[in-house]
Design a protein that fits this description.
This protein has 451 residues and is of the alpha/beta class. The chain has helices at 3-9, 13-16, 19-32, 35-39, 43-61, 67-82, 87-92, 125-137, 185-190, 196-207, 222-230, 273-280, 297-305, 321-333, 341-351, 411-419, 435-438; strands at residues 96-102, 107-111, 114-117, 149-153, 159-163, 173-177, 212-216, 239-243, 255-259, 287-290, 313-317, 354-360, 366-377, 380-391, 402-406, 446-449. Residues 83-360 form the Bacterial type II secretion system protein E domain.
């Protein structure tokens, strides 16, 4: 093509690297390369080879582009030919925690707790289907009209959910949840997710082998908090982690991670969280950490906590500490072992020591909302609040501000920490001479659950 014609065909930067242009050069690339030769190369060699061929094609046939536009075009063409297309730069962006594709033209991402729509998209619905096929093929799964939903985990750890027509009326829908790096308690304190005194108290709870439930809604940071607290488990203990999708990243040496397995194409071979919890009890664990309970395995977990597996940690979906107790009661009743309400409440009150409640503000910030101690009083299950976040009214900037308010620890829990050799931060010191740390009875920091 003469230079004059190439200059006349030149458009804006967006047009020159648009999804239609990328699709054109991807097709030209596939026509130019030798697939048999490419199959013998490693992944890195394939990418290098395709970049060179694309560069040659654009030089010979393409429009005149600035250096950065040219590099961006070549990268997008190779990404679509070899990788996950428009998703590749999003997966490389450490600030992106969620990728949501609602059809080929609607791509959304979550950054810093806020959802935003991207300008670009897939070249076509066929290109989106090809990307989905590449994702599910990596984990030996398939998605088609006979199996229009699939959950999978990429080799790099991202959790993937796919829904296609006829279930989805918006076309193929792809959701990729990415897991940020593991944060320490000190880093979470620096991010104002909790205060230093509460961080010290939670660390003492873990070292003293108290059983903790970490609760919160979707995207409130339950796994992040679980990762941070697990750092305080002594290194010499045998820890078994159980998850639907492996997200925990424990630093201890003696860790056995277990992951549930979905059914295969024939609907057979599923291994559930409950199966893994039961099996873990035969593996001589010092502590069991369950990524999330959502069914009958809740009762098995409670029984494990009541039979010598102190110091266990688990997460559950709930919007408040009160809801956490009710949800645990409901989930435990879903077991094939039918127990009366009173028996389940007794199991919870004897198994669970502390509920750590997380929340997510309208500005996208995630923080500790409440810490409550579980106690039993005259047959009733009682929640004792020992910390809560007192939010200020949200201003025009929509930023959540407030203070972490401590309360004295119940005397029984303070005594348990004392005999475990753990100190109590001064902000949480029990009140001298008052039963239960000066908070017994029906005050605002105490909630009672009667059968």
């Amino acid at each position: 093509m003469p230079l004059r014609d190439r200059l006349e065909d030149d458009r804006s930067a967006n047009d020159r690297t648009s999804k239609h242009m990328v699709g054109h050069w991807r097709q030209r690339l596939l026509e130019e390369i030798n697939l048999d030769e490419l199959a013998r190369l490693t992944l890195e060699q394939r990418r290098t080879r395709l970049e060179k061929v694309t560069d040659l094609l654009v030089t010979r046939e393409g429009p005149v582009l600035a250096a950065d536009e040219r590099a961006n075009l070549i990268k997008r063409v190779v990404d679509e030919a070899l990788g996950l297309g428009v998703l590749e730069p999003l997966l490389d962006d450490p600030d992106v925690t969620e990728i949501m594709v609602n059809g080929p033209d609607a791509v959304f991402v979550e950054r810093f707790g806020r959802v935003q729509r991207l300008d670009g998209g897939f070249a076509s619905e066929d290109q989106l289907y090809q990307t989905i096929d590449r994702i599910v093929a990596k984990v030996n799964r398939r998605v088609d009209h006979s199996s229009p939903m699939v959950d999978a985990r990429l080799p790099t750890g991202e959790r993937v959910n796919v829904v296609i027509p006829p279930l989805s009326l918006a076309g193929p829908v792809l959701t990729i949840r990415r897991f940020p790096r593991a944060y320490t308690i000190e880093e979470l304190v620096g991010m104002r997710s909790l205060d230093e005194a509460t961080g010290m108290l939670l660390a003492a709870f873990v070292r003293a082998r108290l059983n903790l439930v970490i609760a919160g809604g979707t995207g409130t940071g339950k796994t992040t908090m679980l990762n941070a607290l697990s750092a305080f488990v002594p290194g010499g203990e045998r820890i078994i982690t159980i998850e639907d999708s492996a997200e925990l990243r424990l630093k201890q040496e003696h860790v056995i991670p277990l992951e549930a397995r979905p059914a295969n194409i024939e609907g057979k071979g599923a291994i559930t969280i409950r199966d893994l919890v039961r099996n873990a009890l035969r593996m001589r664990p010092d502590r069991i950490i369950v990524g999330e309970v959502r069914g009958g395995e809740t009762l098995d977990m409670l029984q494990a906590m009541n039979t010598g597996h102190d110091g266990s940690l688990v997460t559950v979906h709930a919007n408040s500490t009160d809801d956490t107790v009710h949800r645990l009661q409901t989930l435990a009743s879903m077991s094939d072992v039918k127990l009366p309400y009173e028996a389940i409440s007794a199991q919870i009150s004897s198994a669970i020591d502390v509920v750590v409640q997380l929340s997510r503000g309208p500005d996208g910030s995630r923080r500790l909302a409440e810490v409550a101690v579980v106690e039993s009083a005259r047959g009733d299950l009682v929640l004792h609040r020992v910390m809560h976040f007192e939010a200020e009214p949200v201003g025009a900037d929509r930023v959540v501000r407030g203070v972490f308010t401590p309360h004295p620890l119940p005397a029984a829990l303070a005594e348990k920490l004392f005999y475990a050799g753990e100190g109590i931060p001064p902000a949480f010191a029990p009140r001298a001479g008052a039963p239960g740390g000066g908070m017994a009875g029906g005050g605002p920091a105490t909630r009672r659950f009667s059968p």
